[in-house]
Design a protein that fits this description.
It is a single chain. By secondary structure, the protein is of the alpha+beta class. It is built from 29 helices and 29 strands. A hairpin with a 5-residue loop joins β6 and β7. The longest helix has 40 residues.
Length: 789
């Protein structure tokens, strides 16, 4: 996309140029043509008053400085001060315009050339400049690699503007994708991963790949014929080798780290029930695949030819015809078919950032903190990760009146809510025994309190008679899975009034959490989860003297189990509201071939309880604000690692999930720090890192794809919600049908008749009564010309 650069309050601003007509009007403005003549005569001040355009950026509509949006095209400057040589260069460029992805060619003020070409995604501006300059064997200006680089434009004449592809006015990537691409490429540069020769990076103004001086594409010599039949040798890169008159090119085999073979396999999985094209539909489906993939193959037919297979006896010639036909179709935004494929693969790919694979979670550290070692010692290895995660809600429930201060200075209590997801009959009950032993002391305390509550109820049975006050020191922490709102609120208030304690639930199926309150809906449970994580105020105010009245922070930890389908159904509407991100997710996965090996559990006895008691006693004794500098430093480091991974894997879902996964892992670290006598060591640090990665891996496995899709749809809505100049989006001559279609695409309601009448009244368009078409006027063009100047 081309951006007009102008000054506003002494600041350089940029805005997109929408159409060929607008660009031509800007280039041929009388004052600019006058300045161009003077500039070519050596007037430097006149040159400074020429039209300024930016070609490297993707989206900008404001200050140019600080722009972090890279586009799908790049600018290449070729200096030349000899007229004859300049014409030879022009011919050379035009002969290879398809190979280099040329979008625009203009003569510069001094007689050289400005090339705007398609940028290969995943590669920097400089890498693309070196690639094209090497293909053409031309000396390039090395000072034009900056994102915000501005070039002086010349006129709209055929002598100055030699070639212009209308695709230059459309950016195929979304604004969000442009920003993520910029971040990714910046990281590559910082890590020294840019594949260019050292001499191209030097501040020596020019670079020419005239030998094997470290260029990433060793040259091969071919013969090119100029118009005067003189034969000259020229160098091209290995990516373009002429063989028998045909160009054989080698293109990237991956898109943002994902092989095209994986993309195509997933494409058929999601769009054709997992079946590759067969003889009856191969023509249509090959065309459809090419139509979609061109968005991630540089809009290059040869690139598509390389990555798309010949299906079911399809000859290479037949396949190429379908590709060429797809390339001629109008270029719209990325189709939904391809978008869901990339979202699914991004979610899968980002799982590797967690230290696991697409099928296996990150492995539990070999050396565990003593408490975790003890709690997991009686379960087989396949269950240890699930148990190691599931014990923390019950451990946290033993702490009361305790505050931890996160690195951002926000206070947290040990609120941890764990959901174990695994298929039916896989052994999710393995978490029950360790939790039973952890909660035994609380269970024993609850027994006399339940009896006292029952006695009070027996003494005060009627609603009309005068009741004795309910004892204030009753505190029941373990909840049953079937209660009313009033009982739940009573438990919350009692727990707060008796030492700021937690209440705790454990359910065999996630749906049972609906019975914790009387409303019985998943949405209500989601709201409760969000409030509990934040320790928000809960309870109820009632007028009646017999009603439960009281408000207190919600301190509720729980364990729940479920199957993957039930988990997705239950949390279907809670991915983008923060509910799932507040959970600690764990899983049990048994690899193929091990299903028949029945797990054997260890024995839980008095010795197990005795060895556990010192840790529980330390948690019970803790009070007040507790700090651990090592835990805070680790949380900060993990945050940075998460940001880097989100950029590397281009996953917005990973980034969103990682925020609270970091907090949850840090909270576990703080619980372990207290349980081990306020001591921090490498085993705790390693476990905290693993816990965060494991939680993230499970979330990406079960919810990543849907989360990516919802976030993308949200961004699309945000993009379309901004004001748009409908008239600038329409062609110079349009009919009512085109106008209505454009309104629909921009999400406008009603038929838009009033807007059309306003345009006519203001003199922006006229209506041809015979053809019933609308035509943009000279008045409108003047308005376009004056915009931003």
């Amino acid at each position: 996309m081309i951006h007009l650069v102008y000054f506003e309050n002494r600041r350089k601003m940029a805005r997109p140029i929408q159409s060929r007509v607008e660009l031509m009007l800007l280039r041929d403005a009388p004052e600019r043509l006058s300045n161009l003549t003077k500039a070519r005569q050596g007037d430097s001040k006149a040159k400074g008053r020429l039209l300024q355009l930016a070609y490297n950026i993707g989206y900008a509509n404001g200050p140019l400085a600080g722009c972090k949006s890279i586009g799908s095209q790049f600018f290449l400057d070729v200096d030349c001060y000899d007229v004859e040589r300049s014409e030879a260069i022009k011919k050379q460029i035009m002969e290879q315009k398809e190979a280099i992805g040329l979008l625009m060619l203009e003569r510069s003020v001094n007689g050289g050339w400005h090339l705007i070409c398609r940028r290969q995604q995943g590669t920097t501006i400089l890498e693309n400049q070196v690639r094209v300059a090497s293909m053409l064997h031309l000396e390039m200006d090395t000072n034009t690699k900056d994102l915000q680089r501005v070039a002086y434009a010349t006129s709209a004449s055929k002598e100055d503007l030699v070639y212009l592809d209308d695709a230059i006015f459309t950016e195929p990537m979304t604004p969000e994708e442009c920003e993520r691409e910029y971040t990714y490429l910046l990281e590559r540069q910082r890590n020294g991963e840019e594949q260019v020769p050292k001499s191209a990076k030097k501040a020596n103004k020019h670079y020419l790949n005239d030998d094997n001086n470290g260029a990433s594409h060793p040259k091969k010599t071919i013969t090119a014929t100029n118009g005067d039949d003189d034969k000259k040798e020229q160098s091209v890169s290995d990516s373009t080798v002429k063989e028998k008159g045909n160009e054989k090119k080698q293109f990237p085999t991956e898109y943002k780290g994902i092989p095209y073979t994986e993309i195509i396999n997933k494409y058929w999985e999601l769009n054709n029930d997992g079946k590759e094209p067969m003889k009856g539909d191969r023509d249509t489906l090959t065309y459809q695949l090419a139509y979609d993939l061109r968005h991630i193959c540089g809009r290059d037919a040869d690139w598509l030819d390389q990555v798309i297979p010949c299906y079911d006896g399809f000859s290479p010639e037949e396949k190429r015809k379908k590709i060429d036909s797809a390339m001629n179709a109008k270029m719209e935004s990325m189709p939904y078919r391809l978008r869901i494929v990339l979202q699914a693969l991004k979610a899968t790919k980002s799982m590797t950032a967690c230290g696991g694979t697409t099928t296996t979670p990150p492995p539990l550290p070999q050396k565990l903190p003593p408490l975790i070692e003890h709690l997991t010692k009686n379960v087989p290895d396949i269950y240890k990760p699930a148990v190691a995660s599931a014990v923390f809600p019950s451990l946290g429930a033993h702490m009361h009146g305790v505050k931890f201060r996160y690195w951002d200075n926000v206070e947290h209590e040990p609120t941890i809510m764990n959901v174990l997801i695994g298929r039916q009959s896989i052994g999710k009950g393995c978490i029950k025994k360790p939790i039973e032993y952890i909660m035994d002391d609380i269970r024993q305390r609850d027994i006399p309190n339940r009896l006292r509550e029952a006695e009070w109820k027996q003494k005060n049975p009627g609603a009309k008679q005068k009741k004795d006050p309910r004892p204030n020191d009753i505190c029941i922490q373990i909840l049953i899975d079937n209660m009313t709102d009033a009982v739940f609120n009573q438990r919350i208030v009692d727990a707060h009034n008796n030492g700021q304690r937690f209440v705790y639930s454990i359910v065999d199926e996630i749906d049972a959490l609906k019975k914790v309150t009387s409303r019985g809906t998943a949405d209500e449970v989601g709201l409760l989860i969000r409030k509990a994580y934040d320790n928000s105020m809960g309870g109820q105010d009632r007028v009646g003297s017999d009603s439960v009245t009281g408000i207190a922070p919600i301190r509720w930890n729980f364990n729940a189990s479920t199957t993957p389908p039930n988990a997705r159904r239950f949390f279907n509407k809670m991915l983008n509201d923060g509910t799932v991100s507040r959970l600690d997710i764990s899983t049990i996965i048994i690899n193929e071939g091990n299903e028949d090996n029945a797990p054997i559990m260890g024995i839980y006895d008095q010795q197990y309880a005795t060895d556990l008691k010192p840790y529980i006693d330390r948690l019970e004794a803790a009070y007040g604000e507790i700090e651990c500098p090592e835990a805070k430093d680790l949380a900060l480091q993990m945050r940075q690692d998460n940001n880097d991974a989100a950029r590397l894997y281009d996953s917005e879902a990973y980034r969103i999930f990682s925020y609270r996964a970091n907090v949850i892992a840090w909270l576990k670290g703080m619980v372990l720090y207290v349980a081990h006598g306020y001591k921090w060591d490498d085993t705790i640090a390693e476990f905290v890192r693993w816990s965060q990665q494991y939680n993230l891996w499970c979330k990406m496995l079960y919810f990543g794809q849907q989360m990516e899709q919802e976030l993308n749809e949200e961004l699309q809505i945000q993009r379309q919600s901004g004001p748009q100049n409908l008239l600038s989006l329409l062609p110079d001559v349009f009919n009512r049908e085109q106008y209505s279609l454009m309104r629909q695409q921009q999400g406008r309601s009603n038929d838009g008749g009033s807007a059309l009448r306003n345009w006519i009244n203001r003199g922006y368009v006229t209506r041809d009564e015979k053809t019933n078409q609308y035509i943009k006027t000279e008045e409108y063009r003047k308005r376009v010309l004056s915009y931003g100047l």
